[in-house]
Design goal:
about 250 residues; mainly beta; Jelly Rolls; single chain; 4-stranded antiparallel β-sheet; about 40% strand
């Protein structure tokens, strides 16, 4: 079909071309047989041709493994957010990665690690959002409050050489950590004092006689106990009167 360009008889003309279906005479349809710009390949399929893809493809779960040479489309979640995956060597398996819009993780042998925005951290079973308040993000030293423990010796202090548990065994695979200790010996009998992982001494100190100020030790690198083992303290000389407080966490 020709139509004029301009307003006088000498104006040039332009030609519009409409592709129609050879059988029906109607404008051509869509799909691989359509008269339209074709892409090189569909996602996760051998190069066979499809309309050029604009945007991404929503998937309820991570994509499967594509064949070598396949074209792969941009994967998106049900909120229109792109799925971003960092690749690692194929020999490394059983990492955890997010597999839905809320960042819940599942075990995967697909050798990939999910990248989650909006402040999430993996707690060993699922992805948790970072905690905060109206003033901003709350950063906890060493461990969350629920994992911390505190010890205070009885009135009068430690007077014999018995092992006194600072924190009991924390459970299968869980360790006790000591972050700080404070002690004050008010008797005329000095003594060494030790912190034990089970029966193994992992720290040794000294409580002089008649202390006027407490000894305070902060462990910048926390003392670490064995899995499912108690952490205890003991004086090595009877007769001292050593008040002891200690802090730590299980993890």
């Amino acid at each position: 079909m020709d139509r004029p360009i301009g307003s006088n008889e000498s104006a040039r003309t332009a030609r519009e071309v409409v592709i129609v279906d050879a059988t029906t005479g109607a404008p051509a349809g869509v799909g691989a047989s359509a008269y339209q710009v074709q892409g090189a390949a569909a996602s996760d399929a051998p190069a066979a041709g499809n309309p050029v893809l604009a945007g991404g493809v929503y998937t309820a779960a991570p994509a499967g493994v594509s064949a070598d040479g396949d074209a792969v489309s941009w994967r998106m979640d049900n909120r229109g957010q792109g799925r971003v995956v960092l690749s690692i060597p194929d020999s490394v398996v059983n990492f955890y990665r997010p597999n839905n819009a809320d960042g819940v993780a599942s075990s995967s042998s697909n050798a990939s690690i999910g990248v989650i925005g909006f402040g999430h951290a993996f707690n060993g079973n699922a992805w948790d959002r970072f905690r905060g308040d109206t003033n901003g993000l709350v950063v906890q030293p060493f461990a969350l409050p629920g994992a911390r423990w505190h010890y205070a010796s009885p009135s009068g202090g430690l007077t014999d050489t018995s092992d006194i548990a600072l924190s009991p065994a924390a459970g299968t695979g869980v360790r006790n950590y000591v972050t700080a200790i404070q002690y004050l010996n008010t008797s005329a009998t000095p003594s060494e004092l030790v912190i034990k992982d089970g029966s193994t001494v992992i720290w040794r100190g000294y409580a002089p006689a008649n202390m006027n100020t407490p000894g305070t030790i902060n462990f910048d690198v926390p003392l670490r106990g064995s899995p499912n083992a108690a952490i205890s303290i003991a004086m090595l000389t009877s007769g001292s009167a050593t008040r002891v407080s200690a802090q730590g966490f299980a993890g």
